[in-house]
Amino acid sequence: MYDYEKAYRRLTENHAYLDEGDFVIENCPVPEENCLYRLDPRTKLQTSNSFRGFKFNKKDFVMELIRSRMVTSEKDITKHAVVMNRHAVTEDVHVFTYVPLHASNKLPCILYIHGGSFIGGSATYVHEVCKALSEKAEAVIVNVAYRLAPEFPFPCALLDCYRALCWCRENPAGLPVNGQIAVCGDSAGGGLAASLTLFERMNKESSIGFMGLIYPCVQLRESTAYPWDGKAYKIKQDHKEIVESLLSLRAAMLVIEALYLKQQGKADDPLVSPIYTKDYRVFPPSLVVTAEYDYLRLQGERFAQNLCEQGRPVRCIRYDGMEHAFMDRLGTYPQAEKVLDDIAETMKSHFQNF
């Protein structure tokens, strides 16, 4: 019904800018015409938000059911071979690595952290994303399979990601890496990527040179300091679907917080919610990607604005018409492929300067 290649080309050509003073948001419109302030028509065929329409009830919450909804339908979009292997980091943690077969030089390393609300998802669900990112960024990708809450509440996932980062630095597998390390993640994985960077800095280490955060969860609970405002979302069409998408994820956050923390942490701890970091100068150059009709959009853009206001190099891109988790539709939504281009381009530009 929709010409993927034509839409993808239009995404690479059309960009607008939303000026918020010194902070600028790049705006990537829906590739088809007459789609302003409405969902991308592709979402009508296959939504990316696994929470849309799901009724959350703490008493009747069934973990297996919600985890079963967090499946992806990503496609292989690579043009060249990428070699994948599995490695044990510890008894509890393993990683998948992706290396471009044609690589002749040593490459940057990207530690990728999958999403899933801290309670679901899987490293196996992002194989195609990691393969494509490896090819586009000309990088070695290390995809960490961290332990999930509630069986393993905070800080287990963060510590697992830190162990994977140490594994990247030590390189026991002899990967063709050049010492430059980036960290990327989507949704909860984006939040963990920022938390991991902060945790590393707290340990007086600084190996992470770039962050790529895709619709990140950087604020687990709403607060007066960073409130959520439904009026910030402009809607002309698809009102019912958009409101349902926003409010279902908003309701989910209350359950996610209880399951992730299990009284082991506080929602305003910067290692849980990096938006509460006091000194943003600890963060490296960053890319923050948001989706227009995502409950997490406001916190992601505020996090990017905080980076900008504290003098950190940051690029923020908003994808119009998209809901949460649109990367799960790689190969179907052209926006997902374009995000990988954004990460590759932005990371390369920063690493080339060092």
From TrEMBL:
The keyword Hydrolase applies. Keywords: Hydrolase. InterPro entries: AB_hydrolase_3 (IPR013094), AB_hydrolase_fold (IPR029058), GDXG_lipolytic_enzyme (IPR050300). Pfam families: Abhydrolase_3 (PF07859). Residues 110-327 form the Alpha/beta hydrolase fold-3 domain. The keyword Hydrolase applies. It comes from the Bacteria. One of its GO terms (molecular function) is hydrolase activity. This is Alpha/beta hydrolase fold domain-containing protein.
